[in-house]
Amino acid sequence: MKIATYNVNGVNGRLKVLLRWLEEARPDVVALQELKGPDARFPVQEIERAGYGAVWHGQKSWNGVAILARDQEPLLTRKGLPGEPKDEQSRYIEAIVDGIVIGGLYLPNGNPYPGPKFDYKLRWLQRLQDYAAELLELDVPVILAGDFNVIPTELDVYKPERWRNDALFRAEVRESYRKLVGQGWADAVRELHPGERIYTFWDYFRNAYGRDAGLRLDHLLLSPGLAKRLTKAEVDKRVRGWEHTSDHAPVWIELSESAIKRRDD
Predict the structure, then answer these.
(1) Rounded Cα–Cα distance for residues 41 and 60 (Å)
(2) Total number of domains in the chain
(3) Does the keyword Hydrolase apply (predicted)?
(4) Across-strand partners of 103?
(5) Which CATH number do you get for residue 79?
């Protein structure tokens, strides 16, 4: 089973790129972020013609998340992250696909630091921690996939010293992410590539992609049972080089049907 996350940076404006990638990569499940459009403007007909059922949670001009499933309809279980009832930003959606709970998320950027946007980001992270702990208690297969807007470690950024006071890399943010993973989640990319410099985002400015001056912001966190089924975790970096593409690249994993034995087991 192939499961991906992709910040499309505008689902309608970059629909050709998304459809091309879906046709080439053929993931079974995709969590999308930054739809940048209200529910009524989600391109459901084009997505269905590509062979995918979809659920989505849009917002005019900003944010927006969706979950796609190949040859089936995802079973929607939640829109919005609990913990702050007046929060109307479209940043979390959840569905069941083939018995796996998929939580698709777009975590707040948080800049500028300090300020209310950074405070909101820390609250959102705490809400995510609280809800993620509840999901683990259910003892069912769960994947939290999306653009976390968190650079977890210095290995995940091209020049760490330049990012110390950025909301993506602030110590408080990284500590919150560390606590989240510490609940028992497996960061899929790091699980299989523990020491490799891997990026998922390259800015449009200063030839960042050409210089490989990137960041790792897009993550797939697996519940313990699913972590035992992880066989691959990769970034489709080439997609970032396509014309009129997102500044993020798709990140994907593959899961076996049952638990596999690793060398360090």
Answers:
(1) 9
(2) 1
(3) yes
(4) 94, 144
(5) 3.60.10.10
Q: How confident is the model at residue 263 (pLDDT cuts 50, 70, 90)?
A: low
Q: Is 7 annotated as a binding residue?
A: yes
Spell out the residues 6+ positions from residue 138 whose beta carbon is closer than 8 angstroms to its own: 101
Is 147 catalytic? The answer is yes
The domain in which residue 146 lies consists of 2-255
What are the tens digits of pLDDT across the range 54-64?
999 999 999 99
Residue 207 annotated as part of some ligand binding site: no
Which member of 52, 92, 106, 199 is catalytic? 106
H or E element, residue 115: none
User: Is the model's pLDDT at 121 over the cut of 70?
Assistant: yes
Give 9-63 pLDDT, tens digit per residue: 999 999 999 999 999 999 999 999 999 999 999 999 999 999 999 999 999 999 9
Active site (annotated) includes residue 106: yes
104 closest CA partner among 157, 63, 52: 63
Does residue 261 sit within a domain?
no
CA 191, 192, 194, 199 torsion: positive or negative? Answer: negative
Instruction: Name, in order, each residue with C-beta under 8 angstroms of 67's C-beta and a sequence gap of 6 or more.
Output: 29, 30, 31, 32, 54, 55, 56, 74, 93, 94, 95, 97, 102, 104
212 is in an annotated binding site: no
User: What are the backbone dihedrals phi and psi of residue 16, each rounded to the nearest 5 degrees, phi first?
Assistant: -60, -40
The answer as to whether 134 is a domain residue is: yes
189-208 mean pLDDT: 97
Distance, in Å, from the CA atom of 114 to the CA atom of 107, rounded to the nearest integer, reads: 17
Judge whether 57 is annotated as a binding position.
no
Gap between the Cα atoms of 155 and 157, Å rounded: 6
Q: Is 130 a catalytic residue?
A: no
Would 265 be classed as within a structural domain?
no
Q: What is the pLDDT of residues 220-239, one digit of tens each?
A: 999 999 999 999 999 999 99
